[in-house]
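Homework-ish question, so no full write-ups if that breaks the rules, but can someone show me the predicted structure for this set?
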Amino acid sequence: MTPVPRPPVTPVSVLRVEDARLLRGRGSFSDDLDLPGALHARFVRSPHAHALLGDVDVSGALAMPGVVAAFNGRDLADGGVNPIPTGWLINGMQPGERRALAIDRIRYEGEPLAVVVAETPEAARDAATQVVADFEPLPSVTDVEAAAAAGAPTVYDDAPGNICFTWETGDADATRATFDAAHTIVTRKLRNNRLVPNAIEPRACAAIWNSGHLFLHLASQNPHLHRFILAGFVLGMPEHRLHIRSSDVGGAFGSRIAVYPEEVVVAWAARRLDRPVRWTATREESFLADSHGRDHSTEAAMAFDADGRITGLRVRTLANLGANLSLYAAAIPTWYYAAVLSGPYAIPAIHCAVTGLFSHTSPVDAYRGAGRTEAVYVVERLLDSAACTLLLDPALLRRRNLISPDSFPYHSAVNTVYDSGDYERTFDRALDLAGYDRLRDEQRRLAAESRYIGIGLASYVDMSGHGPSREVTREGGHAGLWESARVRVHPTGRVTVQTGSQHQGQGHETTYAQIAASALGVGVEDVAVGHGDTDSAPFGMGTHGSRGGPVGGSAVWLAARRVAEKATRLAAHLLGVGDAEVERSGDRYVVKGRPAEWRTWEDVALAAHMAQGLPAGLEPGLESTVQFDPPNWTWPFGTHVAVVEVDVETGVVTVLRYIAVDDCGNVINPAIVDGQVHGGVAQGIGQALWEGARYDGSGRLLTRSLGSYAIARAGWLPSFETARTETPSPSNPLGVKGVGETGAVASPAAVSNAVLDALAPLGVEHLDMPMTAEKVWLAIRDGRRRQSAALDTASTRLDAGPVARVVDRSRESSPGPEGGV
Amino acid sequence: MDTVNITVNGKMTRHRVDGRTLLVHYLRNVLGLTGTHVGCDSSQCGACTVLLDGWPVRSCSILAVQADDCSVETVEGLAPDGETLHPIQQAFHEEHGLQCGFCTPGVLMTVVALLRENANPGEAEIRRALSGNLCRCTGYHTIVRSVLRAASDAGSQA
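A: Not a homework solution, just the prediction itself:
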C-alpha cells in the first residue's frame, strides 16, 4: 500500500457517544448485571507461595448456612475441566500448568484451590473460611535473579533452574565485533519493576446455564478469544452454545486479555448446578490473582564510535513469568520486547538474549506498553549513561543517532521493519516545546540555590497495531491478530457497525462511528457501534497492543467502503447511468453534470432492502463483513521530556512538567488520542516513581492493597503538555498508528532519566524504579558519603583534579542502596 | 435485620437489611442503583463516593444502618430526567473527562461537593479535592479541565 496523501477520515474531536450512559451511572459493567436468584462464588486461595497440596476438604463449608456447593481442584478435573492453555509458544519451552483450581501443588500465594457457592456473598465468604486444605509448605522464590540462581527452589520438577525458555534475536557475532572495535562502551544493570495493572473495575463474571447453552458475562479485552479458549480447550463444550458478552469494561491495560481460573470455575459451576453463579473480585484478589506486568532484570551494554554514534547494543534479560504461563506470557519479554530495541536510532548491530523464568508469583502477562516499555527503558538509560561518559548533552547524543527521514521503510537489526517516520521533526518539536536550552539554563541557575532540577528525555519507537498474522504466528503466536468489522446499513439508511474489537474506555463507539460515517457519507450520529457480544459481533481478536485504530478501525473502514461501492452501483442503476457517472454530494447521489438528477442515500438504502428493480446479479441488502490482516505493525514514535525537582531533604520527587510529542500517523479523534497519551504517561510516571509489587522472603505479596501499592493520584501529577506530528502509516488504509500505549512506553524512561539527572551532582549514578522518596533519600545520603570520602582522598593527593560530576560508567556500576525490587 | 429509612436522590426508601449490609450494597443490590461502583472495597479508590447529608463519603465503608434517617445523593440523581446532563456531567462530556467511566460516578460526586463549597477552585484545589478518587485512564488531566469548565460555566450563568 502506498501512503495516503491526506487523511481519509477528517480529524474531529467528536464528543463521545459512550459518555451519555457512563456519566449517568448507566453503564453496564460486569458486576452490574441484574441476575435474580444468582448464587455467589467465593474462592479459597493459598496462603503459601509454594506447598505440596494434599486433601482439600470442603465438607466444613458445605455444612454452613446458605451454602449450595463447594468444589476443589479434583472435582473440577473429574468434571472435565482442562488446564488453561497458553497462547504463545517458543521452541523447546516448558509450558508449566495453569489449572483453574490447584491440585497437588501450590505455586503462588493466592492461587485458588477451592470455591464455595452460596445463596449470598456473605454466606459464601463465611463458609470459605471452613475449607480445610492440607499444605506442606516448601521454600519459594519470587525474585527473578534468585529464581535463576543455582540451588533456587524450583517451580516445576521438569523445568530445572526454573527455565521456561531461552530466546535470542539479532546477530551475536556482528554485535561482538562492534564491541571489540568500540571507542566507548557503557553498561548498565537494570531492573524493570513488577507492576500490578489495577484497572479500577475489579474482575467479575456471571454465568447462566440454560438447557445446554451457557451465557457468560465478563469484562474481556477479547471476548471471542475467551469463548474459543473456554469452549474449545478448557470446558470442552460446543463453541456455538457458549455466548459471551463483554459490555462496559472498567479499564484493562492488558489485565483482561488472559482467560482466568475464576471465569472457568464460575462457568463450570453454573452448568454443574444449573443455577446462575456470579463472582466479583475484591481489590486484594486483584493484586493476588490478576496477571502482573514487567519484572525484568537486564544487563545491557552499548558500544559507540569516537563520534558518539551507536555501533552496537547487547542485552541479556531475565524475565519473570510467574508460576504459570498466562496467555501472552512468552510473547511479552521476547518478540514484543526486542522488536523496538533499536528505538529511533540507527544501530547497526544488536543482540538480545532472554531467559524466561518461572517463580512463585502471580502469572505475568501484558501490561500497557508490554515489552516495549522495558526495551525503551534499557536503551534510554544506556544513552543517558553514555552522555555522561562521552561528555555530551543527552539531547545532542540522541539526535546524532536518529534514523534519518529518508531511511524508511527502515530494517532494524532485530528483524523489524519500521513503516514510516520523521524522528528528527518530532524530536526537535519536543525540545522546542520544552524550551530545552532554557531549561538547562534554569537548572544551572537553581543549582546555585541548592535546588535540584532534573531534565529527562526519552525517544521511542513503539510497535503497535498487533499484528500481521504471518509474522505473529511465525514468532510463536497460536493466533494471528487480524480484526473484523461488519457494517450493516438499515432500510432507513441508518448504520450499525459490529466489531470484533472491544472497548475499555478508548472510545471505539465514537471513533468507529466517525470512520464508518466518513466512508459512507452519513452523519456520525447515524452510526451505532456494537461490540463484545459473541452472538452478534463477528469473531475478532479484541483490543490490546494498540490495535483498536490501525487494525480494528481499518476493518471498519474497509467494510464501510465496500458497502459504499455497492450503494454507488445501486444509485447509478436507479438513475439509469453508469457507475462512473454518479458522484456523492452531501446526502445525495447525483449524476455528474446533471444536478437535477439524484437519489438520496436513504432512497438507495431502501431500494437495496426492498429489492424492487435491483440490477441483475446484485444481492439485496447493504452490508459487508471484512477481516483485515495488516501487512505490518505500525510504528508510532516520539520524544518525551520530563522535568522534575528532587527535595534532597525528603527524597520526594515532584514532576514539574511533562512534555510529550508523539506521532501516531493520521488522527481520527484528537481529543481521544490526547486522552490515551495522558493516561499512558500517568501510568508510566507511576512506574518510575511509585509503583512496584514487593514480596517478602516467604513469597507473600506485601503490596496487596491500594494503601500499600501506590498508583498516581491527582495531586501527584502535573497537567501534561502534548503535541503531535503526523506521518501517515503505509500499513493500513487509514494511515493511522496505535497510540494506546505510547505514553506508558516512553514515560518511565523519561522520568527516570530526569530524576537521575537531578541526582547526578549528588553522586548518585543509578537507581532502579520505583524511585520512591525513601529510595531517593537513601541514595542521596550514600552518594554524599561517597563524594565526601572521595574529597578526603583527593585532598591527600596533590595531583588530584576536582571531583567530576561525570563518572566513568564504562564498567558496571553497583546497584542502588536497595538493589532493586 | 434492621429497618432503614434512607432518602436517596430525594426519594424516601425503606427496607429491612442485614446489619452488615454496606451502604453501597444497599444502593446497588437493594435499590438497583448500579451507578455507584465498588473499586477497592477499602475506601482507597473513591469509586463508591456518594454524598451523605451533603458530604462525600465512601459508601463501601459505611453500613446501610449508619445511613438510617440520612439523605444520600448518587450519580443517578444528578440528571434525573434522563435527557439533559447536569452541568458538571456536561463539562466532563465536553472536556473528555472520562474514558472507561468506572471511576466517573465517584469523581462526579466529589466534584459536586467541591463546587458547592468552592464555586471557583484553582487547579491545585481541584487536584487536592480529587486526591481520594483514583482514575487509571485519564491521568487526571482532562478531569481537572472538566472541573475548571464546570466552575467557569456555572460562573458565567450566575
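Now go work out the reasoning yourself. Hint: The longest helix of chain A spans residues 548-575.
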